[in-house]
From TrEMBL:
Record's protein name: Imidazolonepropionase
Gene3D superfamilies: Metal-dependent hydrolases
Record InterPro entries: HutI (IPR005920), Metal_Hydrolase (IPR032466)
Keywords of the record: Hydrolase, Metal-binding
A molecular function GO annotation: metal ion binding
Any single GO CC term annotated in Swiss-Prot or TrEMBL for this entry: cytoplasm
GO BP annotations, alphabetical order: L-histidine catabolic process to glutamate and formamide
Amino acid sequence: YIVTPSFVDPHTHLIFAGSREHEFFMRNQGISYLEIAEKGGGITSTVRATRNASSEELLVDLLNKLELINSFGTTHIEIKSGYGLTIKDEIRLLEIIKRAKQYTNIQIIPTLLAAHEFPLSAKHSQKLKEKYIEQIINEIIPEVKKQNLAKFFDIFSEKKVYNLDQTKKLLKAAKAHGFKLKLHSDELSNIGATELGVKLNACSVDHLLKISNKGLDALANSNTIAVLLPGTAFYLNEPYPDFKKFETTLNVASKSPCVSPIITAVLFSQFCRTKESVINFSCICNIVCTS
């Protein structure tokens, strides 16, 4: 027998409806995620399905996932909104996450991810994009804070989604309202999001598939945690950069190995040279990301 601390998952999108497995095969045919998203797939597809699902359906599905995750040893988990993209729907998702706390022993840490994507109606209009950003700043962030529905604010900082200036504007607004910060950073392209996250003292920057040496240097000289998500790399068929040369100075966390054990085992084989580093990956650094 091996006794370890319980597992902590610092990055999940557990509350959603619908399925996008067909997109995996599209990417295997050479179609990029951004190309799929431009045609109304990707996040936008899940937003449509989630809006059409009832609150009870979403709650039951979420509780089933939490029961399975808990059975494998995860006791703390972060859960993001992000598949609503309106004030009504984002708050609905966060309220369902709050309700779920009554029915599970897992400690849930909610994150507001209204800046996961732009609503479909705004994707091809700069004016409507700016209008949605102002809605996040002036309506969604204050209301979520007022109702105490989330601890963290997250954003998908990416080419063709939220650019660096928009990311900075939204993060500063969230920070001014007392939210701790997270970023989807350097996932599909490098626009300097990791360096911005470090500058704003973000708790974590997540994904990092396209991180630069400059971004790694910024992380190595900060308290910001690098959250690696091996399932995403597998899903996108993308390699990870070489983190081994930074292993003594970089604080690294990862998804709970119980959520995707085979994929995470591959990650551990690439980045963990000792059993202590496995525990750091799955427990200690992850708790920092959610505390």
